Predict the structure.
Amino acid sequence: MNIALVDDETTYLKEMETLCHNFGAQNQCQIETVCFSSGEQFLEAFEQDKFSIVFMDIYMKGINGITTALSMREKDNCCLLVFLTSSMEFMPDAFSCHAFEYITKPFSPDRAYAILHDALQVLPPPPKYIEIISDRKTFSLFLHDIVSVVTDAHYLVIGTTDGSVLRTRMTMPKFLQLTGNDPRFISINKGIVLNADYIQDFENNCCILDNGARFPVRVRNRLKIEQAVRDYNFEKIRSHQRIKRMH
């Protein structure tokens, strides 16, 4: 998780930063924190999708936390917002900013850990990746960047979203094992696995990808393959809807 901490009191910044990193160490969760001492400084650096969670002090010199949060929401309505406060006076205004939670000062470690744990339950999982060796070099590939995987003798030819092709000595079962048998990878023929996220259509016993590439489909299993792609897309839509409801 990438976490922004916004507070004009250095003591609280350091305390919350320590709590976040302790939580990450205890839960095998990689956490990166960036500290800001004012709302102005935070907004200058803020970009959409930059942070998973923002811990925002309400009472700050300059623009306060409520105003800062409203400006943030104009760019990003999905990151989780947790207010830090020593008084409940502004909490009705705070929740108009779609706040996820709040923590009162002085901080309770148990309260902070509980909120971070809840955040893990609603945030989308981090992108998965695998490592392969191609041309004597090690490459880290995000699964969402892999478009196609085709067997070539004792090798796999992996096509990626940027149009590049990597050749690695590996079997197809080993590749699927590395991905954790990720459901997006669907076998459409012997030695051909495609990422369902990039399948556009089926036509004349061929599978057509978004980039225009065509791959032959195993004719006798075509209906099952098409159904597998539909099932995957349906479950992906349901998953996105669940995440939106949680936010």
